[in-house]
Amino acid sequence: MQEIEFLPLEYREKHARRQSRPWQIFAAMAIVGLMAAAASVQYELRHELRSELAVVSPVHEAAVDQSHRLADAQSRLKLARGRAELYTYLRHPWPRTQLLAALVERLPNAITLQQIQVVRETAAARPTSDRRSAAERKADAERLKSLGPADRDLAEIAGKLNPMTTVVVLSGVTTDAIALHHYMGELDATDVFDKAELDCFNAVEAGQGGVALQFRAVLNVLPGYGQPGGPDFQPKVKKAVAEKLAATGKKP
User: Fold this and answer.
1) At a CB cut-off of 8 Å and minimum separation 6, what does 130 contact?
2) Among 188, 126, 133, which residue's Cα sits nearest to residue 163?
């Protein structure tokens, strides 16, 4: 049987609100409790993070300080290396004493040197024009500006001197042509000279009616430190020297 409500609608709404109020209070208390628990957890986490930060901060500061010192050391090392490379390059070609030592150590008694000249020659008979475009020249100029003072000087000097070669010109007399050719072969096999060739020789009168040979030889000097093909390419140089020595029947 259907129930009939005789109470006014307003009374029924008030009654429904009174019935739902405990649940609203319970829900609000639950929310407040969850928020308090979350705040407590956050506080604990924050406290732990602060403790860890207190431990990590000195380590971080030490690492940053070491990084700065490392960067400074690397910068100073780069400048020092640039100055060292420039100083080394300025000492090329090979010291004259080393060239003379290589000539005298192998000089046989049958040969008398009368004159030794060390000259520098250009690689080409005529000067080469700059075929770079304007953009390439500008890029090279910007690159030079970005270099340190020593590196910039080295790049400019090397650009002018690398195309040039050093040559030793020997003049002398000998009474033994075989000894002269053997002497040229020994010089050609050293790690100082790249090529030793007789330029010319003529027969001249010697004492007591004898005959001697007056000769002129040209020796190309290997590139020095810092130059392409120089001691920086030591394995390549050693291989070439070993091949030359093997051709003369000597051990390196």
Assistant:
1) 137
2) 126
Residue 111 to residue 84: CA distance in whole angstroms: 40
Backbone angles phi, psi at 111, to 5 degrees: -115, 135
Nearest-angstrom CA–CA distance, 103 and 171:
12
| Structure tokens belonging to residue 178 | 């075989």
Q: Does domain 96-123+163-248 have CATH number 3.30.1360.100?
A: yes
Residues present in the chain in total: 252
CA contacts within 13 A on the Cβ side of 180 = 23
Q: What is the pLDDT of residues 195-246, one digit of tens each?
A: 888 888 788 776 665 778 899 999 998 887 777 777 654 444 444 444 544 5
Full-prediction pTM beyond 0.85? no
The residues that bridge with 203 in the sheet, in sequence order, are 213
Residue indicated by tokens 């100082």: 192
Which residues, other chains included, contact 112 with Cβ-Cβ below 8 Å and sequence gap of 6+?
A: 172, 173, 174
Question: What angle separates helix 9-90 from helix 149-161, to the nearest 10 degrees?
Answer: 50
Count the helix, strand and coil residues of the chain and give each as a percent rounded to the nearest 5: 60, 20, 20
Q: What distance in Å separates the CA atoms of residue 78 and residue 82, rounded to the nearest whole number?
A: 6
Q: Encoding tokens for residue 74?
A: 């690397």
For residue 114, give every residue at least 6 positions away whose Cβ sits within 8 Å of its Cβ, in sequence order, or none: 171, 172, 173
